[in-house]
Amino acid sequence: MFSVSHWIAISLVACFCVILFGLRRAIRSNPGLKQSIRLLLVAVLLFSEGGLQLWYITQEVWEKGNSLPLELCGITLLLSIVMLLTRSRLLYAFLYFAGIGGAFIALLTPNLVYPFPHFRFLLFFTAHGGIILASLYMTWIEGYKPTWKSLFFTMLCLNIVAAAVYAADRILGANYMFLAHKPGTFSVLDYFGPYPYYLLVEEVFAFVVFLLMYLVFFWFPQRLNARKSGREHTL
């Protein structure tokens, strides 16, 4: 973590986000380009999960306890594919917060033991970058926006997902979503106390991150634009 290759990978993801934002008007005005980018994101996400599963199988390391897409980012990756294909507003309401927030934290503190240029390293950053870009595409290109309701909807869905994954963990003897214990590599969970208290702190942390994502990028800009419009109207 925070090696040169890690910083380069994060920077590349950030560059793609900046490029998407910078070209948002051109993409919106070109239906063919718009569809191509949407399908490209679908292909990138499919390749990421398909490539990971293929690697598990070819390396003969596939195990039900750690190879299923039951981590939060694995779940949001699959849901992002469905969202892009269906343009589902319901999935967007969940993925703007859980997808971007979860993938962003994962990019900063990757639970990864394979260094660059290992295939797993490349897949990890491609997958998490793709999750972020999928929701940003729906925001900047399709014009979707989160609301206060979607923030609380996301928290409710996360708890439902966690309960289902916890049940799967018990059945499989696994630790998906780190619901049984912390990961072996460094993560933000190391600051949240021992098990099971870190699960409660994690929930508060998630809510604060999601709240900031809404306030900084939507609520405050909307208030500023409303005040600006009011002043112009008065003048």
From TrEMBL:
High-level lineage: Bacteria, Bacillati, Bacillota, Bacilli, Bacillales
A Pfam short name: TMEM164
Top-level lineage group: Bacteria
NCBIfam families from the UniProt entry: intg_mem_TP0381
Keywords: Membrane, Transmembrane, Transmembrane helix
Signal peptide bounds: none
Protein name: Integral membrane protein TIGR02206
Keyword hit for Ligase: no
Source species: Paenibacillus jilunlii
TM segment ranges: 6-27, 39-56, 68-86, 93-113, 119-138, 150-168, 197-220
